[in-house]
Structure formats: structure tokens, C-alpha cells
């Protein structure tokens, strides 16, 4: 703990007693000096002691277990054992010791010669080893060992010790393999080689240190004991760097004491063939070509698990496992059990030069890529003597020089920086399985097949050789008939394909093969493309491919054999074009987004556009095809897959993803094409026979509107299929244009009205044009039509007014879209229903980036406007009140019409809110709607009609002349907006609110509703919040539902809290009150609190702003007799002006507002910078006066002296004022202050 010396008590030790040493101190010291005192030493000497009986000196040591076996009884041997143990300086060293013979069991002779016999045995206790877990030396019991018995050595101890020393520095010697005159072993060199140590160069006098326990290789040179020159030559090969000195380090020479064979001690080993020419070639290659792995001779017995891959006349290829594996430059170690390819060269044992020449092709990169075909070395089959190349991968040859040279040329074109290319190669036909015909066309037949080994590709995950094969690869075979004698034709086909592919880099040509029966050459491809046989058409197709190069188009434009098209059915026909549907057996090639490769979509339904009389007019075909490739938007919708040809008529056929019919009128067709190719609108000619269930909706002189079912349906983007497709059996509106058969311009003008867009969305969803075959009237086929032009125009106007793409799209909603219609409530002119809108409203889905989409099965509310069938103006007026802003509380989705009653319907959101919207009183219902439409924030209070049965615990808390105020619990509580759920719901059940019940309010008036508007629906406002209106079912009186003020009315609060009601707060207060009877309005009657009403009003003059000013200070609790310092002088002056008997002398509300603001700015605490210091002083003096106890007691006295019969509530004053003379504006005397005072 304190890093000081301390003792380890009760320590088990060993005592070495030196007999007769009492007279030989020098001997004692010499003996002690042999030991280490280092704590890591095997033998540690703790100190010296002496036996008092014999006087013999004693060495006190550690590890009695070690010394126990140190005694042989032969002093020379014991000293030698001690010497060996004292050399140990690492715990990993094996402990050298004397081992009693009775420790050995199961002794069996293994070999012998004249002087030595070797036995195997089991050593019962086993050797001593350091156990890290127990932090001490322990034995490895029942250890199998070898006993080397030296015959006739009982008197030759020195020889025994010399023999032992020879074995002492190498451990774990294991044979790796043998080849001819050489055997290779691995071993641990305990001392290790001397190495130059840069770390200790500065600090120590020598910079060479040993690297102990080094793993090394022994290269035994058999029968070398008498051939010293041979040994020296072998060593010099390493020292002169014939072998790579960074990998093959020669540490030194050793000798086997049994055989006297010399041993080269190396860092790594490599084998030699024994053929000088090959060994020299290998040495030369090692020094010239340094890649990731070392080129070497590989003994055949190192290779196992042979499996034949394929063969031809001169070569057999095998896969195999190489036991030791290649030697790697990266870590100077081997990669064992390496999977390799063996290229066996038949009858090559006598053609060394041929073998060397073939090997050099790999080493100098003749085969294209240094990392694709790594040659690890050469081996030899001992049975056939055929030489073998050991490779990372394998490449076949055709045996035809022209083709093999061409293949090598193609490989050499691969740039070293582009590892992504597949390697072009010769592919033996027996590598191709499951060959099935796909189709044929002229001189070409296409087959599918499985390539057993598969193509070579770049594998990023592979550590050493980055190229590997994809076995059992599905490929396409393009047979070139009668090509066996026209190699140039084959080569040209490959070049054509690789140049154009015709231009798409994902179209890979893997190589060439040959059918052994017909000798026809075969192109092996990842995908196939047909050819038409017409040079102009094929050139055009290739041109289209080159344009697509690098663009990764969704589909590949190609020639499509007509026999690939099944189930052909006519859809439409004109004099020069026919439209068919069909199933394309193989389907188009498209880019798969998941695997980013091209693949086919088999058995795809397509549209065929047959161009009549086109067999001799290639330009027409080309022009028609190019129209589909111009506009990016139209390409997505009308994607052209390619061209075909009817073999019966020779007419060319455009194969498309969607069909588009044509009219017989060129002007109309041109107009339709112009719209499709120059805009983002899908517009088409719709054959009349595709329209079913046609029913009249409405008509006038110029136009008749029908509903119909369009069998094919409009084209739309299908998110699930990620492509454009048709929405079959779609309900549409048909707008017949009477007598339009001869007026194409009128037709086009009418159609163009529908092409207005907002936020890249077509306003009116016009699908196209059709024509009634009986009347020849042209028809606009549109998504919706109300049948009323004014309503249609209004809907267009509402859509064009959208200020953002997040606004709701206002639209006409067919009544049959509305399901589960249930009545919620009604009044004299309105009925409210809930319903499910099947398709749901249109909204912009920016979250999923899919533009406009619908919210299906949307719960909505329906506001039926009764008897509106003949009053479109009132419908439009009603609709304009609503917002289309998405997220609004009262959101209007659109208009519909009940087909039975013809009543128009407003489609709205939130039927939950509308459920409490119906009071039964039209005036109240309109007012509630008006208040809800004022909501412009989710934080605003939702004003609503609240049924009286929602209120519990009703208790009176205040009373006035015309109203009683109650507290109550609102059972459901108010509506609040939940942003996470994007909806309103009730969240504060049993909320305490105030009910202001207005006497005699059964007959509600606008004056009452205007007063209700003075309350606030904004949370946090200084004005009292209002939640809605209710009605007492017994008295029929209407009730205002207000925020509950827990401190009561303002007058009570002010009296109770006068001592805390400082002047700063007084200036901030605005007192509000309702005066007047609601149900009965008579301007002769005067209502209010007598002292608060201006004199001229009491005498019959109408209420004016000046009359309100008169009561300004009265309402703030002041009395006419007010002096300084009871109130600031500036305030008293304002009060007197307000109480002036002449209304003309009273200040206006604007003047009062400015004066009060200036008071606040002069006496506003920290809120304002003082504008007038004199006013500030007046207010401070008044505040000090207010605080004075005398002042406070006088207020209390005043409150106590108030007459109990004094009335300070609003009431009818007419009985008290009816006999007063009327006010006369022209008679100042009559209106004198004295008369007012009399009043």
C-alpha cells in the first residue's frame, strides 16, 4: 500500500546444505553468485544460513518442488542440471531437470542403431511449466515423451552433457514435409536470432538483441555431413539474395547430432523441384515479379481434395486445397488450406521450355489482369510427371489461335482501374447445363442455360485474390448458325455486342462457347436482345441503346419477335392504326432497383400499336417510335418497349406499356399528341364503345351531362407496382357538346379550358375526348361534372385560389361516393349527417413524396342545404364562408347533391364538432358556425352549441338585473387540438365553467349575439374566454358558457383586495359588463346602474360614446368628490372632463386611451421608460397615500357605511325617468348642470 518493504510470512522454501563448507567461505560465495535475485528467475536465492549443529552453510532458495528432482546423486550431472536451470530467464522456458526412471511408464522401442535406441514413454508427473492462472510452476502429468538411450555411456558423463546441450535451444520440432533430398521442419528457437534493435540504439552500447522463442523453419540437407561445399552453396543462395531476402531470411546453420545432417535455419521455407531449369526459373521469377504472393515450387503431396472441373485435349482443370497455402508478402506468412485451381498440362514432362513459356504468360500479365489469374507456382504429378500450374482462377482456351488471341485481346482491354468488369473468356460447352430454347428469329436461336462455374467477377469481400466465380449462373445463349467456318463473323458479332449492347453497360457478354455436335459458335450473355434482320431497324434500335448508355433507363428498347406476343385482342381500330392488348411472354428488360441489374418481367400485359401499310416505310415507324422518347413525363406513362412485325401483313408494331386510341380526325389526334408530349397531362382519345352504363345527369341548350363507366379507365401512377397503369371501370362524367361534329376548333377550345393547373396538378381532371357514333357529337370525358355550369365554374375558381399545395382540393363529390349516411341533427333549413367518403379527399403527400393522393374511407360530415336545388347562388355564398386550408377546424372538401331530393350538400370535416352544432334555432346555429369559422389557430377555443344536460353541480355565484351567473361542471369538457394525432378531441372532462343565464332570452336578437362576440376565443387573452352557447330546457333562456373566474366579480374582488390594488394595476384594468335585457328591445327603455348612466341618457337621449365616457371613472370605482393626494392630479382632471354635463366637452375614447397610455408610460415600473417625471411623482404620492393606514381605515369605514338598500346592479330605469323632460340639443339652460344635479 505504501510501496515499502514488507515480509511474506510462512513461506515454503528449499534449503541447499553445502556439506563441510564451514572452512570454505570462498566456495560458499562462488556457489551463491551463480543464483539470480531477480524476482522473475526460476531459481531465486533468498539468502544464506548455517546449521548450528554441523556448522554447514545453507543456501535458502525458492521452489522446493523444482529442487526435489535436481538430485541424481552424480555431482557432475547435478551441477549441469543446476547450470541449465539457472540459464532460465523466462517463465515460458521448459524446466530442465533430473527425472527418476520410475517416472516413465509404457516404454516402447521405436527405433535403434549401434549406439542409440529411441523409445516412446509416458512421463507420470510430466514437465514443469509456468501456470499463469495460478501464478506458479505446475506439472503437465502423463506427458508422452521420447527417450533417447545412449548405450555404454555409464562412464561418459561429459558426452551425455554435450548431447543434452545440442537439444537445449530448439523446441517443438515438427516435420512439415519432404521432397527428394530435403525434409522441412518447423521449430521454436528459444534464444532466437540476433536482430538489430533500433529502440535501444541510443540508450545502450550495443543495438543488437535476441528475439526469443522465434518460430523458424529447418531445411534438412540429407547426407550433407561430408559435403561442406554443398551446404555453403545452399547458404550462399540466401545470402546473395537469389531468393527474396525480405521473406527468406537465413538465420544460420545447425547440425542434427544423430545423423550429422546439416540444417539451414530459415524464417520461411520453399520447396525445390530438383530440375535445375525449373528451379532457376522459379528463383528468377521471385526476384523479377513481386506480387501479393510468392511464386514457388509446390510439392504434389501438399495438394488434396482434387475435383475435376473440365478437360480438353491438352489440358485438364481441377479444383483442390493447398495445405500450406501461398506465402504472402503482406505478413510474410502463409494462407493455409487455400482453395486453388490446377491446370494440368498433358504430356509436358519432356517440354520444360513450353511449361516455362506458359507460366510466363501469367507472370507478365498476358491474360489481362494481374489480380484475376494469380499463378502461385508449379507442381508435378508424380504418377504422370505432367507439370501443373497452381492458380487462383482458371481460364479455358478454345484451341483455335484466332479465337484465343481475340479473347486475350478483349481481356487486355480491361483497364486496371476498373475492377467491376466481368472477364471475357472461352467457356467449354460442358460447363452449360439445363439448356432450354427461348425462341428463334431468322438465323439466330436464343436459349437459357445454367453456367456451372459461372463468370469471374470482382469480390470486394475477398482478402487476397479479389476475383472469384459466381457458380450456377443463369445465362442466355445466342447461337450463331453455320458459324463454324466463319470465325471473323463470330468476332464481329462480339465486337458489335460489346460496342453497343448495344450501349448498355449492364448487358454483359461473358464469352464464347461452341456446340461440339454442330460446331456452331455461341455468345454467352447475361441478357439477350433480338435482331430484326432489317439493317435500318436494327441500326435505329442500336442508336436508341447508345442514347440510353449511362442513363439507366427503366426499360430497354428492343426488337420483339412477334411469336413472343400471345392472347392478342383488338381494342380499337382506325383506317391507319389498330390497337391491341397482348401478353409478352418474356417481357421487357428493366432495371431492377433492388439489385441494380437488368432483368425481365415475364408474361407482361402490353399494348400493340399496329401501323397499317408500314412494311415499306421504315421512316414512319422510326418517327412514330421517337414520339414516345421525347418527353420524360410521357415516357413514364407511354413507355415504348420496342418494335415488332406482324408476319402475315408485314405491318410494323410498336409495343407499349399503355395503349392510346386514335380518332379518325388528324387535327384532334395532333392536338392529343401535343398535349401528351408537351405537358404533364395524360390526355387521350377514348373510343365510344369503351363507355358503358351511360345515364343522363342534366342538360341545357348547348351541353348535356351524362355519367358513365369507362371500361379501360384512366391512366394513373400505381405506387404498389411503381409504374403507370389503368384504373379500369372508372365512373366518369361525359360532357356532350351538341352539334360539334363540324366544329373542331370549338371542341379544342372547350377542352383547353380544363388544362389549367395548380401546383402541377390538373384542376379538373379531363381524361380525353370521345364521339357519339350515332349523333357524331364530340364528348369531353372528365372526372366530375355537377351538371350546373355555375357550380363547375365555382369549383374551378376555388381550386385556382389555393395558396399552397397543402390546402385541401375543393371538388365535386358524386353522391354514390358517400356511404353509411346517418343523421346527426337538423333545424328548419339544415340537416347534418355523418358519412364515409369512399375515395376520400385529395391531399398533397409531401411525407412520402408522391404528390397528390387520396385519403380513402374518410369520415366526413354532410351539411344538407334544404330546398337549394334552384338556388345555386345561396349554395355558393354558403360555401365561400368556409376555409379549404388543410388543418382548419371547419374544412370544406367540396359539394355534392342528393339525387332523390336534389338538395345540395357541403362535404366537411369533423362531424364530431358538428354533432354539437345544431341547436334547432337557425340564428344560433349560424352564429356558432360564424364563430367556428373565425378560428385561425389550433390554440383558439372551439365555440360550440353545448346541450344543457352536459352541465352538473350547478350553483349560483352572482346575480344582476338581467342575468344570473352559475358555476358548473362541464361533463365532456371543451375541444382541444392534438398535434400528434392531427385531430380535435375532448381532454378536460368535468371542467369548471361559468354559466351566464340571461333572463327572458327565449327570443334571441342580433344585439345579444353581438354582445357575445365581445368575449374572446383566444386563449390567454385579457378578455374573458367564451366556450359557446346553451339553453335551459325549462325556462328556454339562453346561456353563455364562460371561463370561470374563481375570485368572483370585479367589484367584489376590488373591495376585498383594495389594499393590494396598486395604481400600476388600476391603469391596466379594463372593466367589462353587459347591460340590458336581451329578449325585449325598446329604445325608450333605459337599462343600467343609475349612478353609471349619463344625465342626457336618463332624459331620453340615445346612447352615445360621450354617454359611455361619462361612466368611465364611475366604472373604475371612483366617486365624484376626489382630491389630491387621494388620486393623482392628472387622473382627477381626466375624471372631471368625463363627468362634464355637456357631452361635447367630454373626451373621446381615443383621447382617453392616449391619456391612460401616457399615464402608464410615466408610471409603468420596469415596463416603460418614464415619459413625464411630474406624472410619475403624482402617482407615487397617490400610492403612498393609499398605503397609509389612515387611508385604508377610511375605505373600510366607507364600505361599512354603504346603505343596505343601495342598488348597484343593472336594472330597468324607465320607471324612475319617465317623467323627466326630454333632452333638447338646442336649449343649454334646459340642459343645465343644475338640472342634471337635480336628477
Task: Walk me through the structure.
With 1239 residues, this protein is α+β, with helices and mostly antiparallel strands. Helices cover 23% and strands 30% of the residues. The protein is built from 29 helices and 65 strands. It has a six-stranded mixed beta sheet, covered by helices on one side. A six-stranded mixed beta sheet has the order 22-28-29-27-24-23, with helices on one face. A hairpin with a 2-residue loop joins strand 23 (432-441) and strand 24 (444-451). The chain is flat and about 160 Å long. Residues 200-206, 241-245, 415-419, 1070-1081, 1112-1119, 1198-1207 and 1229-1239 have low confidence and may be disordered.
- Class by helix and strand content? alpha+beta
The number of distinct β-strands equals 65
Largest sheet: 6 strands, mixed
The tally of helices reads: 29
Strand content: 25-35%
- Uncertain segments are 200-206, 241-245, 415-419, 1070-1081, 1112-1119, 1198-1207, 1229-1239
The value of Rg in angstroms is 54 Å
Instruction: Please give the share of residues in helix.
Output: 10-25%
Mean of pLDDT:
75
Name the shape in a single word.
Answer: flat
Order of neighbouring strands in the sheet with most strands: 16-20-21-19-18-17
The separation of the N and C termini measures: 104 Å
Amino acid at each position: 500500500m505504501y510501496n515499502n518493504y514488507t515480509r511474506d510470512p510462512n513461506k515454503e522454501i528449499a534449503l541447499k546444505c553445502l556439506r563441510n563448507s564451514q572452512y570454505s567461505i570462498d566456495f560458499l560465495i562462488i556457489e551463491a553468485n551463480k543464483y539470480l535475485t531477480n524476482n522473475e528467475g526460476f531459481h531465486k536465492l533468498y539468502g544464506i544460513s548455517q546449521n548450528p549443529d554441523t556448522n554447514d552453510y545453507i543456501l535458502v532458495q525458492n521452489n522446493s518442488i523444482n529442487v526435489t528432482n535436481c538430485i541424481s546423486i552424480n555431482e557432475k550431472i547435478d551441477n549441469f542440471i543446476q547450470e541449465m536451470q539457472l540459464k532460465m530467464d523466462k517463465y515460458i522456458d521448459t524446466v530442465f531437470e533430473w527425472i527418476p526412471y520410475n517416472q516413465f511408464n509404457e516404454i516402447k522401442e521405436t527405433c535403434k542403431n549401434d549406439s542409440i535406441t529411441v523409445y516412446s514413454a509416458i512421463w507420470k508427473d510430466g514437465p514443469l511449466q509456468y501456470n499463469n492462472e495460478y501464478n506458479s510452476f505446475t506439472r503437465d502429468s502423463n506427458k508422452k515423451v521420447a527417450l533417447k538411450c545412449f548405450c555404454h555411456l555409464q562412464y561418459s558423463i561429459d558426452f551425455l552433457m554435450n548431447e543434452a546441450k545440442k537439444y537445449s535451444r530448439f523446441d517443438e520440432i515438427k516435420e512439415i514435409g519432404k521432397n527428394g533430398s530435403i525434409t522441412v521442419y518447423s521449430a521454436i528457437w528459444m534464444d532466437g536470432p540476433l536482430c538489430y534493435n533500433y529502440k535501444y540504439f541510443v540508450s545502450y552500447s550495443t543495438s543488437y538483441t535476441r528475439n526469443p522463442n522465434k518460430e523458424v523453419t529447418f531445411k534438412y540437407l540429407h547426407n550433407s555431413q561430408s559435403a561442406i561445399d554443398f551446404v555453403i552453396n545452399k547458404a550462399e543462395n540466401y545470402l546473395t539474395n537469389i531468393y527474396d531476402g525480405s521473406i527468406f531470411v537465413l538465420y544460420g546453420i545447425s547440425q542434427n547430432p544423430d545423423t550429422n545432417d546439416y540444417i539451414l535455419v530459415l524464417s520461411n521455407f520453399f520447396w525445390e523441384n530438383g530440375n535445375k531449369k525449373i528451379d532457376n526459373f522459379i528463383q528468377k521469377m521471385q526476384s523479377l515479379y513481386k506480387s501479393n504472393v510468392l511464386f514457388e515450387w509446390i510439392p504434389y503431396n501438399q495438394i488434396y481434395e482434387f475435383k475435376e472441373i473440365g478437360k480438353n485435349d491438352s489440358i485438364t482443370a481441377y479444383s483442390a486445397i493447398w495445405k500450406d497455402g501461398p506465402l504472402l508478402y503482406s505478413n510474410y506468412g502463409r494462407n493455409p488450406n487455400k482453395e486453388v485451381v490446377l491446370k494440368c498440362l498433358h504430356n509436358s514432362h519432356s517440354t520444360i521450355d513450353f511449361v516455362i513459356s506458359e507460366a510466363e504468360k501469367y507472370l507478365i500479365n498476358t491474360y489481362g489482369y494481374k489480380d484475376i489469374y494469380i499463378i502461385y507456382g508449379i507442381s508435378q504429378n508424380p504418377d504422370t510427371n505432367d507439370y501443373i500450374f497452381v492458380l487462383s482462377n482458371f481460364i479455358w482456351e478454345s484451341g483455335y489461335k484466332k479465337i484465343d488471341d481475340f479473347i486475350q485481346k478483349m481481356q487486355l482491354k480491361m483497364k486496371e482501374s476498373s475492377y467491376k468488369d466481368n472477364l471475357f473468356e472461352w467457356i467449354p460447352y460442358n460447363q452449360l447445363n439445363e439448356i432450354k430454347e427461348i425462341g428463334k428469329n431468322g438465323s439466330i436461336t436464343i436459349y437459357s442455360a445454367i453456367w456451372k462455374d459461372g463468370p469471374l467477377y470482382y469480390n470486394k469481400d475477398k482478402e487476397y485474390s479479389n476475383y472469384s466465380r459466381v457458380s450456377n449462373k443463369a445465362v442466355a445463349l445466342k447461337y450463331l448458325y453455320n458459324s463454324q467456318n466463319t470465325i471473323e463473323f463470330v468476332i464481329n458479332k462480339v465486337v458489335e455486342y460489346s460496342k453497343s449492347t448495344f450501349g448498355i453497360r449492364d448487358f454483359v457478354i461473358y464469352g464464347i462457347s461452341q456446340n461440339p455436335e454442330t460446331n456452331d459458335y455461341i455468345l454467352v450473355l447475361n441478357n439477350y436482345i433480338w435482331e430484326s434482320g432489317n439493317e435500318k431497324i436494327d441500326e435505329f434500335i442500336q442508336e436508341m441503346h447508345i442514347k440510353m448508355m449511362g442513363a439507366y433507363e427503366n426499360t430497354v428498347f428492343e426488337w420483339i419477335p412477334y411469336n413472343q406476343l400471345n392472347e392478342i385482342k383488338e381494342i380499337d381500330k382506325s383506317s391507319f392504326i389498330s390497337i391491341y392488348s397482348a401478353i409478352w411472354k418474356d417481357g421487357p428488360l428493366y432495371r431492377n432497383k433492388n439489385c441494380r441489374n437488368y432483368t425481365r418481367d415475364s408474361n407482361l400485359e402490353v399494348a400493340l400499336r399496329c401501323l397499317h401499310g408500314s412494311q415499306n416505310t421504315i421512316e414512319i415507324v422510326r418517327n412514330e417510335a421517337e414520339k414516345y422518347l421525347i418527353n420524360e413525363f410521357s415516357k413514364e406513362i407511354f413507355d415504348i418497349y420496342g418494335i415488332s412485325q406482324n408476319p402475315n401483313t408485314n405491318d410494323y408494331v410498336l409495343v407499349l406499356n399503355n395503349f392510346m386510341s386514335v380518332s379518325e380526325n388528324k387535327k384532334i389526334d395532333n392536338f392529343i399528341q401535343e398535349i401528351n408530349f408537351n405537358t404533364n397531362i395524360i390526355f387521350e382519345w377514348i373510343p365510344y364503345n369503351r363507355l358503358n352504363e351511360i345515364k343522363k345527369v342534366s342538360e341545357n341548350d348547348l351541353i348535356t351531362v351524362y355519367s358513365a363507366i369507362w371500361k379501360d379507365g384512366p391512366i394513373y401512377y400505381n405506387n404498389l407496382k411503381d409504374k403507370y397503369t389503368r384504373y379500369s371501370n372508372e365512373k366518369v362524367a361525359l360532357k356532350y357538346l351538341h352539334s360539334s361534329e363540324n366544329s373542331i376548333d370549338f371542341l379544342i377550345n372547350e377542352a383547353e379550358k380544363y388544362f389549367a393547373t395548380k401546383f402541377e396538378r390538373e384542376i379538373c381532371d379531363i381524361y380525353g375526348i370521345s364521339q357519339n357514333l350515332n349523333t357524331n357529337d364530340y364528348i369531353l370525358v372528365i372526372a366530375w361534372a355537377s351538371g350546373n355550369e355555375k357550380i363547375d365554374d365555382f369549383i374551378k375558381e376555388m381550386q385556382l385560389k389555393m395558396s399552397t399545395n397543402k390546402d385541401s382540393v375543393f371538388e365535386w363529390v358524386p353522391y354514390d361516393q358517400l356511404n353509411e349516411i346517418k343523421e346527426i341533427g337538423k333545424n328548419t333549413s339544415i340537416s347534418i349527417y355523418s358519412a364515409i367518403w369512399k375515395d376520400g379527399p385529395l391531399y398533397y403527400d409531401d411525407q412520402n413524396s408522391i404528390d397528390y393522393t387520396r385519403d380513402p374511407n374518410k369520415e366526413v360530415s354532410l351539411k344538407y342545404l334544404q330546398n337549394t336545388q334552384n338556388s345555386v347562388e345561396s349554395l355558393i355564398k354558403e360555401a365561400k364562408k368556409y376555409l379549404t386550408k388543410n388543418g382548419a377546424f371547419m374544412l370544406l372538401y367540396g359539394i355534392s347533391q342528393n339525387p332523390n331530393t336534389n338538395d345540395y350538400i357541403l362535404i366537411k370535416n369533423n362531424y364530431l364538432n358538428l354533432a354539437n352544432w345544431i341547436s334547432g334555432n337557425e340564428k344560433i346555429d349560424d352564429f356558432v358556425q360564424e364563430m367556428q369559422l373565425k378560428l385561425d389557430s389550433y390554440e383558439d377555443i372551439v365555440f360550440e352549441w353545448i346541450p344543457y344536460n352536459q352541465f352538473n353541480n350547478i350553483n349560483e355565484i352572482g346575480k344582476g338585473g338581467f342575468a344570473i351567473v352559475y358555476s358548473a361542471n362541464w361533463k365532456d369538457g371543451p375541444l382541444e387540438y392534438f398535434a400528434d394525432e392531427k385531430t380535435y378531441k375532448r381532454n378536460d372532462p368535468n371542467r369548471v365553467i361559468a354559466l351566464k343565464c340571461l333572463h327572458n332570452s327565449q327570443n334571441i336578437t342580433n344585439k345579444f349575439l353581438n354582445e357575445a362576440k365581445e368575449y374572446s376565443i383566444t386563449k390567454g387573452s385579457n378578455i374573458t374566454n367564451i366556450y359557446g352557447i346553451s339553453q335551459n330546457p325549462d325556462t328556454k333562456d339562453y346561456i353563455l358558457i364562460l371561463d370561470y373566474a374563481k375570485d368572483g366579480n370585479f367589484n367584489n374582488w376590488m373591495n376585498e383586495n383594495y389594499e393590494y390594488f396598486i395604481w400600476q394595476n388600476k391603469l391596466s384594468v379594463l372593466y367589462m359588463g353587459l347591460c340590458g335585457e336581451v329578449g325585449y328591445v325598446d329604445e325608450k327603455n333605459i337599462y343600467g346602474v343609475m349612478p353609471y348612466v349619463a344625465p342626457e341618457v336618463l332624459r331620453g337621449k340615445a346612447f352615445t360614446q360621450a354617454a359611455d365616457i361619462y361612466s368611465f371613472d364611475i366604472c373604475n370605482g371612483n366617486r365624484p368628490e376626489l382630491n389630491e393626494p387621494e388620486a393623482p392630479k392628472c387622473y382627477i382632471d381626466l375624471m372631471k372632463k368625463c363627468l362634464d354635463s355637456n357631452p361635447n366637452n367630454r373626451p373621446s375614447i381615443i383621447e382617453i386611451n392616449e391619456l391612460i397610455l401616457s399615464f402608464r408610460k410615466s408610471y409603468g415600473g420596469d415596463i416603460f421608460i418614464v415619459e413625464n417625471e411630474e406624472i410619475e411623482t403624482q402617482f407615487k404620492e397617490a400610492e403612498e397615500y393609499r398605503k397609509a393606514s389612515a387611508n385604508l381605515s377610511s375605505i373600510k369605514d366607507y364600505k361599512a357605511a354603504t346603505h343596505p338598500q343601495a342598488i348597484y346592479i343593472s336594472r330597468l330605469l324607465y320607471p324612475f325617468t319617465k317623467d323627466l323632460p326630454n333632452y333638447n340639443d338646442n336649449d343649454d339652460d334646459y340642459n343645465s348642470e343644475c338640472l342634471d344635479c337635480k336628477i
